[in-house]
Backbone:
Protein backbone atom coordinates (compact mmCIF):
# COMPACT_ATOMS: atom_id res chain seq x y z
CA UNK A 1 0.00 0.00 0.00
CA UNK A 2 1.10 3.54 -0.71
CA UNK A 3 0.19 6.08 1.98
CA UNK A 4 -0.28 8.84 -0.63
CA UNK A 5 -2.43 6.81 -3.04
CA UNK A 6 -6.15 7.55 -3.28
CA UNK A 7 -7.03 3.99 -4.29
CA UNK A 8 -4.86 2.46 -1.56
CA UNK A 9 -6.71 4.64 0.98
CA UNK A 10 -10.08 3.42 -0.35
CA UNK A 11 -8.99 -0.21 -0.15
CA UNK A 12 -7.35 0.05 3.27
CA UNK A 13 -10.14 2.12 4.84
CA UNK A 14 -12.96 0.22 3.11
CA UNK A 15 -14.46 3.53 1.88
CA UNK A 16 -15.55 2.65 -1.65
CA UNK A 17 -18.88 1.60 -3.08
CA UNK A 18 -17.72 -1.94 -3.77
CA UNK A 19 -18.99 -3.93 -6.73
CA UNK A 20 -16.85 -6.95 -5.84
CA UNK A 21 -13.57 -7.72 -4.09
CA UNK A 22 -11.02 -10.51 -4.34
CA UNK A 23 -7.70 -10.82 -2.50
CA UNK A 24 -5.84 -9.65 -5.63
CA UNK A 25 -8.20 -7.14 -7.30
CA UNK A 26 -11.32 -5.17 -6.51
CA UNK A 27 -14.03 -3.30 -8.39
CA UNK A 28 -15.84 -0.19 -7.24
CA UNK A 29 -17.96 2.72 -8.42
CA UNK A 30 -16.05 5.86 -9.45
CA UNK A 31 -17.01 9.24 -8.01
CA UNK A 32 -18.03 10.53 -11.44
CA UNK A 33 -19.38 7.63 -13.55
CA UNK A 34 -19.50 8.08 -17.33
CA UNK A 35 -22.46 5.70 -17.61
CA UNK A 36 -24.75 3.69 -15.32
CA UNK A 37 -22.59 0.89 -13.91
CA UNK A 38 -19.20 2.41 -14.93
CA UNK A 39 -16.78 0.53 -12.68
CA UNK A 40 -13.11 0.88 -11.74
CA UNK A 41 -11.06 -2.31 -11.38
CA UNK A 42 -7.74 -2.07 -9.53
CA UNK A 43 -5.18 -4.46 -8.04
CA UNK A 44 -5.41 -4.49 -4.24
CA UNK A 45 -1.65 -3.99 -3.94
CA UNK A 46 -0.10 -0.73 -5.09
CA UNK A 47 1.33 -0.76 -8.60
CA UNK A 48 1.79 2.61 -10.30
CA UNK A 49 1.01 1.46 -13.81
CA UNK A 50 1.18 -1.34 -16.38
CA UNK A 51 4.98 -1.23 -16.28
CA UNK A 52 5.12 -1.78 -12.50
CA UNK A 53 2.87 -4.83 -11.98
CA UNK A 54 3.87 -8.50 -11.87
CA UNK A 55 2.30 -10.58 -14.67
CA UNK A 56 0.36 -12.78 -12.21
CA UNK A 57 -1.27 -9.77 -10.52
CA UNK A 58 -2.03 -8.17 -13.88
CA UNK A 59 -3.61 -11.42 -15.08
CA UNK A 60 -5.87 -11.64 -12.01
CA UNK A 61 -6.82 -7.97 -12.37
CA UNK A 62 -7.70 -8.35 -16.06
CA UNK A 63 -9.68 -11.52 -15.22
CA UNK A 64 -11.80 -9.36 -12.89
CA UNK A 65 -12.16 -6.75 -15.66
CA UNK A 66 -13.50 -9.52 -17.90
CA UNK A 67 -15.89 -10.77 -15.20
CA UNK A 68 -17.24 -7.26 -14.53
CA UNK A 69 -17.64 -6.62 -18.27
CA UNK A 70 -19.54 -9.87 -18.78
CA UNK A 71 -21.82 -9.05 -15.87
CA UNK A 72 -22.56 -5.64 -17.40
CA UNK A 73 -23.99 -7.44 -20.42
CA UNK A 74 -26.20 -9.75 -18.38
CA UNK A 75 -27.19 -7.56 -15.40
CA UNK A 76 -27.39 -4.17 -17.17
CA UNK A 77 -28.24 -5.23 -20.71
CA UNK A 78 -25.18 -3.47 -22.10
CA UNK A 79 -24.40 -4.26 -25.72
CA UNK A 80 -20.67 -3.94 -25.09
CA UNK A 81 -18.07 -2.23 -22.95
CA UNK A 82 -15.12 0.11 -23.29
CA UNK A 83 -12.04 -0.79 -21.25
CA UNK A 84 -9.97 2.33 -20.59
CA UNK A 85 -6.59 2.58 -18.89
CA UNK A 86 -3.64 4.94 -18.98
CA UNK A 87 -0.10 4.07 -17.85
CA UNK A 88 2.94 6.25 -17.41
CA UNK A 89 3.95 9.82 -18.10
CA UNK A 90 2.23 11.43 -21.05
CA UNK A 91 -0.72 9.02 -20.95
CA UNK A 92 -3.10 11.24 -18.95
CA UNK A 93 -3.10 8.75 -16.05
CA UNK A 94 -5.06 10.55 -13.33
CA UNK A 95 -4.28 8.34 -10.31
CA UNK A 96 -0.83 6.72 -10.01
CA UNK A 97 -2.29 3.28 -9.19
CA UNK A 98 -3.00 0.95 -12.12
CA UNK A 99 -6.71 0.95 -12.84
CA UNK A 100 -9.12 -0.02 -15.56
CA UNK A 101 -12.36 1.81 -16.30
CA UNK A 102 -15.00 -0.67 -17.42
CA UNK A 103 -17.70 1.41 -19.10
CA UNK A 104 -20.91 -0.29 -20.22
CA UNK A 105 -22.18 0.84 -23.62
CA UNK A 106 -25.52 0.82 -25.41
CA UNK A 107 -26.22 1.74 -29.04
CA UNK A 108 -28.19 4.85 -28.04
CA UNK A 109 -26.05 6.10 -25.13
CA UNK A 110 -25.04 9.29 -26.97
CA UNK A 111 -21.35 9.54 -26.18
CA UNK A 112 -17.99 8.27 -27.37
CA UNK A 113 -14.92 7.22 -25.45
CA UNK A 114 -12.90 6.74 -28.64
CA UNK A 115 -10.20 9.32 -29.39
CA UNK A 116 -11.18 11.75 -32.13
CA UNK A 117 -7.71 13.17 -32.77
CA UNK A 118 -4.47 11.56 -33.91
CA UNK A 119 -1.08 11.88 -32.21
CA UNK A 120 1.28 14.50 -33.62
CA UNK A 121 4.28 12.47 -32.41
CA UNK A 122 6.52 10.97 -35.10
CA UNK A 123 9.06 8.17 -34.82
CA UNK A 124 12.16 7.39 -36.82
CA UNK A 125 11.51 4.45 -39.11
CA UNK A 126 8.40 2.29 -39.17
CA UNK A 127 6.95 1.99 -35.65
CA UNK A 128 5.50 -1.49 -36.22
CA UNK A 129 8.79 -2.86 -37.55
CA UNK A 130 10.59 -1.41 -34.53
CA UNK A 131 8.06 -3.03 -32.18
CA UNK A 132 8.27 -6.42 -33.92
CA UNK A 133 12.09 -6.38 -33.83
CA UNK A 134 12.17 -5.37 -30.15
CA UNK A 135 9.70 -8.12 -29.21
CA UNK A 136 11.65 -10.73 -31.19
CA UNK A 137 14.94 -9.70 -29.55
CA UNK A 138 14.26 -8.71 -25.93
CA UNK A 139 17.17 -6.99 -24.22
CA UNK A 140 15.64 -6.87 -20.73
CA UNK A 141 16.61 -10.04 -18.78
CA UNK A 142 13.60 -9.47 -16.46
CA UNK A 143 11.18 -9.47 -19.43
CA UNK A 144 8.67 -12.31 -18.74
CA UNK A 145 8.11 -12.98 -22.45
CA UNK A 146 10.03 -15.42 -24.58
CA UNK A 147 11.46 -14.65 -28.02
CA UNK A 148 8.01 -15.06 -29.60
CA UNK A 149 6.56 -12.35 -27.38
CA UNK A 150 4.17 -14.80 -25.70
CA UNK A 151 3.97 -14.57 -21.94
CA UNK A 152 4.15 -17.81 -19.98
CA UNK A 153 0.67 -18.98 -18.99
CA UNK A 154 -0.37 -18.21 -15.43
CA UNK A 155 -3.19 -19.98 -13.62
CA UNK A 156 -5.60 -17.52 -12.08
CA UNK A 157 -8.05 -18.66 -9.41
Residues:
Amino acid sequence: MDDDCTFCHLIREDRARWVTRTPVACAFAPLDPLAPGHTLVVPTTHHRDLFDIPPQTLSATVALVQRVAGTMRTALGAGGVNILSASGPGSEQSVPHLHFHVVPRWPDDGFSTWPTDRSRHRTTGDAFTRLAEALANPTDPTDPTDATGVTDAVDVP
Summary: Helices lie at 6-13, 55-76, 127-136. Confidence is low (pLDDT under 50) at residues 146-157. The beta strands are 18-21, 25-28, 39-43, 80-84, 100-105.
